[in-house]
Amino acid sequence: MSRTEPAADRAQDASPLLEARGLRKSFGAHEVLRGVDLTVRRGEVVALIGPSGSGKTTVLRSLNGLETPDAGTLELTGGPSLDFAEPVPKARRFALRDRSAMVFQHHNLFPHMTVLQNVIEGPTQVRRVPRAAAVVRAEALLARVGLADKRDAYPHQLSGGQQQRVGIVRALALSPDLLLFDEPTSALDPELVGEVLTVMKELADEGWTMVVVTHELAFARAVADEVLFLDGGVVVERGTPARLFTQPAEERTRRFLHRLLHPLD
Amino acid sequence: MDWNLVSESFWPITLGGLRGTLPLALMSFAIGLVIALGVALLRLSPNRLLSGIARAFVSVVRGTPLLVQLFVVFYGLPSVGIVVDPWPSAVIAFSLNVGGYAAEVIRAAILSVPKGQWEAGYTVGMSNARTLRRIVLPQAARVSVPPLSNTFISLVKDTSLASLILVTELFREAQQIAAFSSEFMLLYLEAALVYWVFCTVLATGQDLLEKRLERYVAH
User: Which candidate from A102, A112, A125 shows the least CB-CB separation from B123?
Assistant: First the structure.
């Protein structure tokens, strides 16, 4: 296998975009995050892997202000900078959404709006982009993911893969510094996974900064600069995919990878 | 059967429906929906005082007869110095009544919109209020159409109670002609027929509206 490592080159010497330190979060008595650190540099792709309940989705959602950690700090270069030890005003938590955009597992497209309306909703309603300009940009983004002809379709008229590509375009239309993906292919039929991962890989190659919660190890291996393995609310191990997937240092990582790669053993 | 009486009474009764029953129902329903949306939002508020007030309002409206509510407004309020004419009294009582019933419908419809829709609104940068208005309410409206149509059709029939506080509407017209001619069976069956036609037309309208809103179906 002669896989080159453009991803690693891309990330080198890049300045940090996001620094998270000691994120903790409990839902009732259940401690989901028990001190998670995460650094994402500009242009880097970070994959979060781990069993369900490991806290990986909670980490991702915290980066978009959908969850509020109980403790820890979250700093984006250029703001906001949040310390969850004290109550964080809603406005400052919401400011995270000026910088990052989210792609959901179940796409969460707005069913009462056309594809185009879905994509321009954020820019026109929140960012105050003039409608005409937002439409031009939305059409260009839709064309990029091969959905130019679907602009006037409603989400329920699309396949799962097409819906998820619209979900990605809706996020891109916000021009975020950081793209967040929450298991974007987990809800798809297997034959539709490829078209979504292909779009994501292209985005990575173009230099978008991405944090991806995923079970697609092949994708993580081909695209990620760094992989974090989470279990029980902590980062058990982190490293380049080449290293982590072939020589995991921790027993828990090894067992998890084995279960995913050899489910029948 | 006295066909002469039928042909003479049919038009006044229908006119009573068109000039009395329908405007009364439409006006009360429109105001009632505004009240209902407000009450539903209060009910969903995390503030326990506000949601408690909304809950109490719904409880009173649903736990007391509409006729009693109507009489409290028209015959009761004058004894505390507030005199309201028949027509506005009816509108007040009916719209509060619709407000109570429709509030529960709207609340349930809002709750039926998946949490992911709120989150998708937040994540494109919208506030709570904007997400409610742009994302959640349009979807809740689609879900609410069948039950709210039923509320409206019930209201059209319930407005016959306004005849008891001297509002000139369909049933009062029929009553007056019946008293005058003593043809009770004939006149009340006539009134029933006109109500039935009104409600059938409205039910057809409901079907059309539901079909038109099909595109709002989620996922």
Answer: A102
Say how far apart CA A209 and CA B125 lie, in whole Å: 19
Residue type for position A193: V
On whether the CB atoms of residues A224 and A7 are closer than 8 A, the answer is yes
| B43, part of any domain | yes
CA gap B141, B137 in Å, rounded? 6
Total structural domains in chain B?
Answer: 1
Question: What is the pTM (predicted TM-score) of this model?
Answer: 0.87
User: Is B79 within a domain?
Assistant: yes
Q: What's the ipTM?
A: 0.90
Q: What is the CATH number of the domain that holds B11?
A: 1.10.3720.10
Q: Do residues A104 and B119 make contact, with C-beta atoms less than 8 angstroms apart?
A: yes
The boundaries of the domain holding residue B89 are: 3-214
Q: How far is CA B62 from the centre of its chain?
A: 13
Residue B219 pLDDT > 50: no
| Three-state secondary-structure class, residue A130 | coil
Say if CB A188 and CB A160 are below 8 A apart: yes
Residue of chain A whose Cα is closest to the Cα of B135: A110
Q: For residue B131, is it within any domain? A: yes
Measured between beta carbons, the chain B residues lying within 8 angstroms of A110 are 117, 120, 135
